[in-house]
Amino acid sequence: MLWNLFAKNPFRALQDLMKQVLLCTQKTEDLFAALLAGNQTRVAEIAKEISQIEHQCDGLKQELREQISKSIFLPVDRRDLLHVLSHMDALADICEDLGVLLTLRKMELPAQMRHSFEELLSRSLFVVTQSNEIIASLDRLLETGFSGPDAVEILKKIDEIDHLEHLADKAQDQFGKSLFLMEDELKPAALFMWNKIANKIGDLANSAERMVNHVRLMLSVN
To answer: What CATH number does domain 2-220 carry, 1.10.760.10, 1.25.40.10, 1.20.58.220, 3.40.710.10?
Structure first.
């Protein structure tokens, strides 16, 4: 393809970045496991690890952004590619934010809220891991010119991710209800912090969904 003469394959760099983002989300799962186990020392250690990985993501993001900006020919709309990159970067940023939030004060989760919280966390992280399958398929889509059966299959997967994000939204609503049922027992600062944490976790699913929907836009113009 002509664009190969002028640009490196941007999708491989995106896939490399997504691997680091996934590492951030895996560490975030570990972060909350340590929190629920009452191990504040481990919470602080994992938060630092997430911050270090996020810094590496920033370096990869900047290199890729420069590569995209300097490329004369690209196989897809430059703006869609940059949007995918932006939402991918947001995922790592959110993980770092969660690490910071959990080190601001010692957080404890009442037993009555644990199930709804774990549901929110698992559903949101699942949206991210499923979105990785879309990013991992970009090379295959490139080979087929972003059309044909492979493209149809990817569009179906994106529809599934939209549904999974909806389920994560529902889980966030349920956690919000359980949180405010406990408002008389919780200190105002704890109530505020858990609400903020829940919103950040929900943002993981939102950013992942937005990321893959820009892949949908790439497919719609090819």
So the answer is: 1.20.58.220
Contact residues for 29 (Cβ-Cβ < 8 A; gap 6+): 121, 125
Model confidence over 41-75: pLDDT tens digits? 999 999 999 999 999 999 999 988 888 877 656 77
Q: Taking phi first (over 0 means left), then psi (-120 to 50 degrees means alpha), and beta for anything else, what does residue 17 get?
A: alpha
- Residues with Cβ within 8 Å of 162's Cβ and at least 6 positions away in sequence, in order, are 209, 213
- Measured in Å, how far apart are the chain's first and last C-alpha atoms? 15
Taking alpha carbons only, the member of 211, 155, 216, 215 closest to residue 25 is 211
For residues 76 and 14, is the Cβ–Cβ distance under 8 A? no
Say what the pTM is: 0.92
> pLDDT (tens digit, 9 = 90+) per residue, 156-169?
999 999 999 999 99
CB atoms within 10 A of CB 187: 10
Instruction: Residue 156: name the closest of 136, 135, 134, 141 by CA.
Output: 134
